[in-house]
Amino acid sequence: MEKRGVEPEEEGGRNEEEDAARAMERAEAGAAGGSPAVLDQVVPAGSSSRVIVHMDLDCFYAQVEMISNPELKGKPLGVQQKYLVVTCNYEARKLGVKKLMNVRDAKEKCPQLVLVNGEDLTRYREMSYKVTELLEEFSPLVERLGFDENFVDLTEMVEKRLEQFQSDELSTVTVSGHVYKNQRIGYKTTKRLEALGISSVRDLQTFSSKILEKELGISVAQRIQKLSFGEDNSPVTPSGPPQSFSEEDSFKKCSSEVEAKNKIEELLANLLNRVCQDGRKPHTVRLIIRRYSSEKYHSRESRQCPIPSHIIQKIGTGNYDVMTPMVDILMKLFRNMVNVKMPFHLTLLSVCFCNLKAPSTAKKGTIDYYLTPSLSTTSRSGKRSFKMKDTHMEDF
DNA sequence: TGGGGTTAT
DNA sequence: ATAACCC
């Protein structure tokens, strides 16, 4: 990754801060190799303050594309998904292209705009994890947010460095602070807050806690109001490997079962590759659809089921056909949602593998084998002894 | 509005 | 199973 494409920001996450707004300490020298002594001006000794770096990669997809193809550097570049420019580099922004702009509008604003297709996220995903893994060398406490943001809790590292500096009697330090601008808290909540006359952080700070709790529920109300004072005690939760793998495709119209099956097969094939590389095995599969609706805001429906254990074991082995039985299962889920005897109009299909587990190493005849519900013969009676929310495809 | 992800209910 | 949130 090009260094100038990365903007390191350092955040002073405080538990009991009294600042009116959330303060952010920008480490001018960057997170790594910077001057850790910065902190003794900000953090009283013995305080429970944390040091959390928030790293946000600029126009991430566009950067990946420019690295893949250096000829794109210096040209206005947009990354296209369907008819949208989902992100673009700074050359393009200078010329008026915005994120999530229509391709037509973007071309109109900027006829020289170079577009690359970014519907396949594979390379973005790979780069994204490379960044996360790099950060994990500094601390295991790295939390991902999307593909292009990471939070790193460096409290321990900083404390250790601080001790060193104090013993060296060295403390030449500069601090520059900056304050969070108004944040968007989430679309639905924003609308509800607006209805209450709350449109700024200041409004939220001064609003009645009681009324807010009644309006939004105690959980959301207390959280966002604390956030409005810059108080965020939420831990940096290590993301670790992903909890789900999904692939989706949107389109203008899918109105036949054959069409749907073809699309599902493509999504599934890609997913099987991914899950194979991961090494873990999914125990649940889900099919998600979006039906065409003239105006109603995007709503999705889904059906999921456990993956039969005999199929799970074949995943990743390569020499067995997993596609056929999985397509079978997915088409059953499909017909469970869509009455194929009636006309239908779908605009999105998505397949998701979740409930990922480390592959079983249990061998026949061992204790582990009999203690693994999905392997031992007791699993059938065992499964029926408790309530399953999922549809059982084994029952079909 | 794409093509992903997470957690809460 | 869905909703809401994040990017």
UniProtKB/TrEMBL annotation:
<feature type="region of interest" description="Disordered">
    <location>
        <begin position="1"/>
        <end position="33"/>
    </location>
</feature>
<keyword id="KW-0808">Transferase</keyword>
<feature type="compositionally biased region" description="Basic and acidic residues">
    <location>
        <begin position="1"/>
        <end position="28"/>
    </location>
</feature>
<protein>
    <submittedName>
        <fullName>DNA polymerase iota</fullName>
    </submittedName>
</protein>
<dbReference type="GO" id="GO:0006281">
    <property type="term" value="P:DNA repair"/>
</dbReference>
<dbReference type="GO" id="GO:0003684">
    <property type="term" value="F:damaged DNA binding"/>
</dbReference>
<dbReference type="GO" id="GO:0003887">
    <property type="term" value="F:DNA-directed DNA polymerase activity"/>
</dbReference>
<keyword id="KW-0237">DNA synthesis</keyword>
<dbReference type="GO" id="GO:0019985">
    <property type="term" value="P:translesion synthesis"/>
</dbReference>
<feature type="domain" description="UmuC">
    <location>
        <begin position="52"/>
        <end position="161"/>
    </location>
</feature>
